[in-house]
Amino acid sequence: MNKTNTLGHNFRGPVSTAIFDWAGTVLDFGCIAPVAAFREAFAEDGVAISEAEARAPMGAAKREHLEMILAQPAVAERWQANKGGVSTPADVERLYAAFLRIDEVQCARYSALIPGALETIAALRSRAIAIGSTTGYPRSVMNNLMPLAKAQGYKPDHCVTVSDVKRGRPYPDMVLDNAIALGAPDVRACVVVDDSPTGLVSARAAGMWAVGIVASGNEIGLSLADWQALDEAAQDAHRQRAGRVLREAGAHYTIDTIADLLPVIEAIDARLRAGDKP
Known about the structure:
6 strands, alpha/beta, 12 helices, single chain, Rossmann fold
């Protein structure tokens, strides 16, 4: 594909860069690993949290995620009843250390690529589209997770973790780092694919196209087997609810999984040629 572009106000595409989240987007259908790790870390500390409480802040940096869990009124009430006082920075550090230890195991357990991921990435590369990635995981976690993905055939051209930038999601720092590192001619040539509302907010803050992942993502939070076990009506009910959340966060498009991305890329290319912008 011809990548010669007219820069500036009259930018007409095409898409040059696709920037993917990890869990729930490219691997770990249902975004199971971090949720399991958060719940186990809290359980070890003597305070149980629900799956919904663990999922609610998804997309944030993981230490911040822990703080947001602790700030939920129901969790704070249980914490105080169990611990005799409000949570402290020392509590956050202890929980975070436990999370990192546990998540190393959970990431290995839930590292399978989402069906269609490799085919979609290959098709994007055939169009000379660079593959970037962002994550709320720190670099220490990704040092273990990336080799597991590579062994299955997935290796993005660039990976930015929350510990590599000054500000994580919902700020645009990670996606902008990808755009610069991968030589994007314009932020309008970048497509961010993410299953978390904060990831989509970061895309819009950067002036990029935002594609929300519904079926395999955190907003539904079901494993592949559990999702496939639902009948069509149940799937559609989940899809409508989760899609609404992602669109409200700024998604230009929503799709079930990464396997459904190519028609969206073609639609964005067409919009760019027509002079549209995110």
